[in-house]
Amino acid sequence: MQLTNRSKQVSNKQMTLAERAYLPAIATGLAITIKHFFSKKVTIQYPEVKRYLGPVFRGRHILKRDADGRERCTACGLCAVACPAEAISMVAAERVKGEENLYREEKYAAVYEVNMLRCIFCGLCEEACPKQAVYLRHDEFVPVFTERDQVIWGKDLLVEDMNNRYTREAWTKEEARALDAKRASGEVTNVVPRAIP
Amino acid sequence: MDLVEFLVKTVTIVAVFGLTLVIAMYSTWAERKVAGFIQDRSGPNRAGWGGLLQPLADAGKMFFKEDFIPALANKWLFIAGPSLAMLTALLASAVIPFGSTFRIAGHEVALQGVESNIGILYVFGVVALGVYGIMVGGWASNNKFSLLGAIRAASQNISYEVAMGLSLIAILMMSSSLSLGEIVAQQHGMNWNIFYQPLGFIIFITCSFAECNRVPFDLPECETELVGGYHTEYGSMKLGFYLFAEYINMFISSAIISVLYFGGYNYPGMDFVYEQLVKSFGPEVGHNIATLIGTAVFFGKALFFVFFYMWVRWTIPRFRYDQLMNLGWKKLIPLAIFNIIITGAAVLFLKPVITAWLN
Lengths: 197, 359
Known about the structure:
The complex is a heterodimer of chains A (197) and B (359).
Chain A (H helix, E strand, L loop, with lengths): L16 H4 L2 H16 L22 E3 L14 H5 L5 E7 L12 E9 L8 H5 L5 E3 L15 E2 L1 H4 L14 H12 L13
Antiparallel strand pairs in A: 1-4, 2-3, 3-5
Chain B lengths: L1 H37 L15 H11 L10 H17 L9 E4 L2 E4 L8 H22 L3 H32 L4 H7 L6 H4 L1 H14 L11 H4 L9 H26 L8 H44 L7 H38 L1
Antiparallel strand pairs in B: 1-2
């Protein structure tokens, strides 16, 4: 059975004089490498230039607010249960009168912590969440931390900033480029522009 | 007068020494840059502009690492290994003519550390010593991989030195001088030896790859077979010295190649440039500027061959050990002897005919 037509008959024949002299083959090789020497480099200069990783990339967590700026999380604990790395912990609290503009439902997470050393960015918390409150951002990583107290992220880092809302508008590379161009020209301003090569 | 001469010599030697070290230092940077470019990457570019501070960063790292000596190693020989490698690598640069002469207040100062009438012999003596650095280091490590690497280095260097010396004999037959300055001076006016000795050049450059333990002949440090080769047990700046010595050797052999085969500081149209410069700047300044141009040309040639070393490194895979020995003993040595016979015949029979015809 022939699968491809790239297969070659193995032969044990004697090398020709040109092959035994090595030099023609070396010259060919040198020509190939010097061509690559002058060719365009594929490197993306990472911290300055960031590649678009696609709309389903799982970066750092975010606790979403609703359209009125109220926190969606009701501290049901399903994300913590779903988490295989046991990275999420929370303390629930009851909403009191006058906090209706802060929390969408009667129960909310007073403390919501993600241990970024334990998190494996699997996205199961996202899937488990019944309130569409927790998401893994597709455009931001967890930055490098150098101290132990930077490891556990609390609500101060996780809850969405209403002035810089997180949306997943671009679903293809082309859409992402178009969106970036719009952001750069100031038409859309909810997420900080980032470069796409 | 003696004191002045001594001072001038000291300054030249220190300048040559410093220059060799700086070039070797930036060869490490260039190696990584060339490697990157050939592999469609951009190489080191974070430390300084274009990664130019990378060698300093590497050296700093090497200096601050723990200077470890294995318990069962012979301590003195273990230290002597890299020192010898470094010493022999640096010694050879003394006799290389980097340019013709400088005229300072009526005195002619040669741009050459030591004007020796046996320059090429001296280079060969020092290069032959070079293997001791590797041999001593590998043996003193008390590690079988180190020892195997060292033995490989020794046998490889001895094998290829024969072919190298034989290919050189053809040059010496033509120049009838052992002085490097004389050999360069004879190549004046595009009489470069490469046009007369193409075969000898190929043999010589192949052997110098082997002498420098560079790919495709880097079997002494063959990682897949010997962990790290002769420097398996080395770390910190002692390892740095071994790697550094390799780059110095590379530069020295590139310089020797350009001196022996590519006319050293000679370049086409040299006499015309010299005349124009002397006419417009006077015999002293004009001469000195012409010398500087010649030196720049020489470094251009030498650095091209350093680049060629790197270019070959990232192109060709390593030879197998039996292939290495076959190539050395069964191909290069007979070819070199054949080259000697051809050269001898040409010098004896062809040269009088051509000279008579030209006149």
